[in-house]
Amino acid sequence: MAPKRPEGAGAFPIPVESPAPRPPDPAQLYAALDLGTNSCRMLIAQPKGSQFHVVDSFSKSVQLGQGLERTGTLSRASMARTVQALRICQQKLKRHNVKRMRLIATEACRRARNAEDFIRTVRRETGLQLDIIMPEEEARLAVISCAPLVSTKTEQLLVVDIGGGSTELVWIDLSRVPNRDRPRAIMRLHTGFHTTDSPFPAAKVVDWISVPLGVATLRDQFRDVEDDAARFALMSWYFEENLAEFAPYKDEQARAGFQIVGTSGTVTTVAASHLGLKRYDRTKVDGLRMTSDQIDRVIQTYLRMGPGGRRRDPRIGQDRQALIMSGAAILQAMMRVWPTDRLSVADRGLREGLLYAQMSADGVLEDGPF
Known about the structure:
Blueprint: E1 15-16, E2 30-35, E3 39-48, E4 51-61, H1 68-71, H2 76-96, E5 100-105, H3 107-111, H4 115-126, E6 131-132, H5 135-145, E7 156-162, E8 167-173, H6 182-187, E9 204-211, H7 215-221, H8 228-241, H9 247-250, E10 258-263, H10 265-275, H11 282-285, E11 289-291, H12 292-312, H13 317-337, E12 342-346, H14 350-362
Parallel strand pairs: 1-4, 2-5, 5-6, 7-10, 10-12
Antiparallel strand pairs: 2-3, 3-4, 7-8, 8-9, 11-12
Helix pairs in contact: 2-4, 5-14, 7-13, 8-13, 10-12, 10-13, 12-13
């Protein structure tokens, strides 16, 4: 399947995971829900200065896209699992009396023939109205969520968001933006990739692409390959083939001033494995920089473990073990193609981007350092 492309060729506040010191005013609460191909995730947060406090959260693997590659539809079982998870989200929203919210669905619902029926079922069963967003908005939300991790020395930036059903890549030229303003220039992209009327130095989106291959869909493409190592190699090669028309891929890029920021469960899991964490710690993972050699060593360890060993590894676990190698194949392809030996790890994604966009539009965040 050919990647989706546009017709033409800031930082969100760092979330503070501890609860607010007193019950928050419901009028100040915002919610963001991201229903992907594999997971359902929600954050409820309260603006505080130029940042925000996370008041409540939810995350569950629902495997909404299970079987979608083969049938073209969402199965009854996957829809039932997802509705059950969304009921929990609805209860949390009701408990906190949240009024401002953005609830989105991504690749699985974009592709499924029965997606509109599913959206109506969700509305009827939970009262929640899901908005199926287009690839450009998904890419934009991923970019602004990662803005705090952008180095002031970065001139060429690649943000990679590895999802369950698709992978978004955005290439941004920051060379004409003053060094100190580069992260904030990324933040300003929340209004759109092609905004031209800003009085501030602008980050230029050179190209972006949404490849309809994520950890779940890429795995399904090669499910019939029995050998673990062979399946991994084929997945990495196949993903790279799907990048051939991405404009910056065609030309040699300078190594200096180039940065890749990766956001996904795959990236954070590889980082946790590299650090040898017994228990996941976001404060140690988010913002970590890993070399390509370190990433490769973790991937080789995963391959030596085999499916059984990966399932028993506490950093991977039962739910993620079936998806970690397809995600690792995407990650390896990234590090092979572009001129850097380091990856910045982002434990953040669409939910944070949604929160930032809502709060920024309402003007409730202070314009301070981030």
